[in-house]
Amino acid sequence: MKTFNYTYNNKALDTLIDFNSFKNEKNILIQIFCGDKKSILKEIATNILDNLPQAICIGSSTDGEINNSKVTTCKTVISISTFENTKLKTAFVRRKDSFSNGVDLAKELCTEDTKLLITFSDGNKTNGESFLKGIQSVNHNVMVSGGMAGDNANFRQTFISSQNQIVTNGAVGVALDSKVLKVCNAFNFNWSPIGIEHTIDKVVDNRVYQISGMKPLDFYEKYLGEYVAKALPATGIEFPLIAQRNGLPVARAVIAKHKDGSLSFAGNLYQGDIVKLGFGNVELIMNNPLESLFDTCNIKDTQSFFIYSCMARRRYMPSMVDIEIKPFSSIAPTSGFFTYGEFYHDNGNNELLNQTFTIVALSEIEDSKNDKKTSCEIQSETQPISEHARSLQALTHLIQQSSHDYNKQSKELEEGKIYAQNLVDSQKQFLKHAVHETNTPLSIIMGNIEMYEMEHGKNKHLSNIEVAMKNISSIYDDLSYLIKKNQVNEATHEINLVDFVRSRIDFFTQSAIKFKSEFNFSSQRKEMLINFNEIKLQRIVDNNLTNAIKYSLPNENIQVRMNVMNNDCHLIIESRSKQILDQQKIFEEYYREQISDQEGFGLGLNLVKRICSEENVGIQLASGENWSSFTYIFKEIK
Predict the structure, then answer these.
(1) pLDDT tens by residue, 608-630
(2) pLDDT value at residue 228
(3) What is the mean pLDDT of residues 228-232?
(4) Pick from 535, 529, 612, 601: which is nearest to 564 by CA?
(5) Which one of 128, 316, 355, 388 is separated from 252 by 20 to 30 angstroms, measured CA to CA?
(6) Three-class secondary structure of residue 15 per DSSP
(7) What distances in angstroms separate CA 151 from CA 252, 357, 567, one per listed residue?
(8) How far apart are CA 637 and CA 495, in angstroms?
(9) What pTM value is reported for the model?
(10) CA 226, CA 557: separation in Å to the nearest integer?
(11) CA atoms of 158 and 327, how far apart (whole Å)
């Protein structure tokens, strides 16, 4: 195998190419990488085939061309490869469905002896990922390389060719069939994810409608600024979304912007995909890529390299892009172009890559007796880089290190969050068990008090125990409600609020007497019907009655009144007590007035407020010197 590369100079082709030297070659592959007009590709292909009618010729429009170590733009590179023991066949497909195009092309070209399928598709209409999956559905073993055509970042019209047939949509390909041809592929990504993770919420194929709750255009404006968002899709190539596909990092660059704020990407994304924004890691790109790419593949006898690299790499670092290419051209003739999406084959999977440098090494030289894979030793070159390149390298290092520090801190915060959550869960579990275990002795004590009173009557000491037990029982009910809140039966039913309040007053009457107080109960009606959950209603009433008992001044009665106003039931609990100084904080968790000499946790009124908020119960609080009044407003059943 031999390869000869030429850059078209707008002169007669026979002054550039010695066609006579190829007249006797039977297997000729010609790749035309055209950064110029469609008519130029047509003219060159026709001229070449007139001189070499036995040749197989494919071509593509570009966003930059590669001729050995030199990178050009808006030029045309002609790569002519001759083979001794490799047969060539070309075809093109033009169906509207990308997957079907892949199926048709594979059926037309792939055989048992196919070692490599080089294919180019248009860069505007073809869904590259679907196209590759179509090929894979027919033959998942054949190595695929190539890419999507470019048009110098105009994103208007790309074109491709098979022989001298030029097409603007569909795909072309050439199959390399051989028993001896050795093909080895590799890729360099070097685009690093940065920032937080985001989720693709809504997508249809390669058109994304929502990312982490935002329109994609708003997403790019938020994280990359208004200028980048307005200049999409041209600016999107430098900042792709990065996801994972079959163990490979894949970038998805913006190729189209739509009026509804959605964006189309060069390759499919899927609902639920976790992605990060990416940036070009210049430090990695500038490292000599040869050994890292082919460290498991013997390329010592390589006869040709074909490179299909992303346009973003050339545009992101135009003064340094040759650093990636030069090491290969020092070993064997190297040619290729900068694409709108690179085709890559890995372990039976065809993948559409973006932002990626892909390369194929070919040789017809027979394997040496030593089968051990060895990598080439490369002379390290020290070449000066521009101040711009140095600044870009430093900025990249800063971004990468900052991202590393951020990820480290995020991990530490996440570990701390998990630890704190485990503590909270353990505390809840402890309280749950404690409350559960408290219920049994409480029931036993209350039962024995009632039995003793039946046999021997009441006495002072037993009454004190009963009062204390009722206070503990009320606290137990609060804790039990808080712990089991999510398990509480939310069912509501009709309740006569008058009877309910009267029954709870009866329950706490002995406690009030213990604190030298009495309840004075009055109601405008005998019946006030509400639709409510009984457990929640008990928490509201009990907490207010027990608070009135605890904080009332000695020998003062507690007034409990009920009336109806505008179809609302008003429950008013008023007591002679010290003035509430901060009426806003009184309902806050753990807050207790400093003037109080009563024990407690300050949880009761917070629990009451939460229930009232959930059930739309109004609260009115009034307090003055030596008095306080709490009013709760319930909706009456009409």
Answers:
(1) 998 999 999 999 999 998 899 99
(2) 84
(3) 86
(4) 529
(5) 388
(6) helix
(7) 18, 18, 74
(8) 10
(9) 0.62
(10) 69
(11) 30
